[in-house]
Amino acid sequence: MPRILAIANQKGGVGKTTTALSLAAALTLAGRRVLVMDLDPHGCASAHLGIFPEDVAATSADVFRARTPRETPWERVVIRPRLADFDLAPSHAALLDMETDLADRKGKGVLLKEALAAGPAYDHVILDCPPHTGVVLVNALVAADLCLIPIQTDFLALHGVRNLFDTMRTLNRALPRPIAYRALATMYDRRAKACQRVLELLRGKFVGRMFATVIGLDTKFREASAAGRVIQDVAPGSRGAREYGELAKEVLSL
Ligand SMILES: Nc1ncnc2c1ncn2[C@@H]1O[C@H](COP(=O)(O)OP(=O)(O)OP(=O)(O)O)[C@@H](O)[C@H]1O
Ligand SMILES: [Mg+2]
Question: What local confidence, expressed as pLDDT, does residue 162 receive?
Answer without folding.
Answer: 81
